[in-house]
Amino acid sequence: MKFLLTSAGINNKSIHDALIDMLGKPIADSNALCIPTAMYGHPWVGPGVKAWQFISGKEENPMVDLGWKSVGVLELTALPSIDEDRWLPLVRETDVLLVAGGDALYLCHWMRQSGLANLLPSLRAVYVGMSAGSMVMAPNIGEFFVGWTPPNGGDETLGLVDFAMFPHLDHVMLPHNTMAAAERWAAGMQGPAYAIDDQTAIKVIDGAVEVVSEGHWKLFSP
After folding, report:
1. What positions belong to coiled-coil segments (predicted)?
2. The domain containing residue 47 runs over which residues?
3. Among 41, 97, 200, 217, which residue's Cβ finds the most Cβ atoms within 10 Å?
């Protein structure tokens, strides 16, 4: 699987071009599944109108509204209650997974409960995360980002990449997301950690990491 881990979606030309390169074909020829699940765990964005905005492509962060050949919804909380043959073929055949932001630990929990977490490494799809949808790929998220608490506690996530992410750096609506805060957060992480603003994404193909940015970012090495 290829990962395009964004802070705020496909919101500039550099990130857009990276996505097309990873797909290997035009967006108009590509089928997508969107995953809104993370939104339900975060009090700011779900449930309600913001989840609908993401699914319908009406939100400000470009992901669902890029002109895909088709877009479906994959709701992870529903998957444990239906037969795998109802959804596994759909996931295996899709070109891209569009994963919303929200709460990373809530998303991680349902990726595991649904069985998607175990499936991800074998997929040919491009995984496009936004905020928590990106953070969930890290080994852990850090205490700074813990909101919803998983049944076993902790801040561990899937570990499908070997670095952590601090999204929305210096965002005007998030006054606590400063570079100084990112430095303190990174000091408590065990491995490499990136602070990225909303004009930045991290591309990962076969373990090779590349930062794609029209904004600002910083890598903190352990």
Report:
1. none
2. 2-220
3. 200
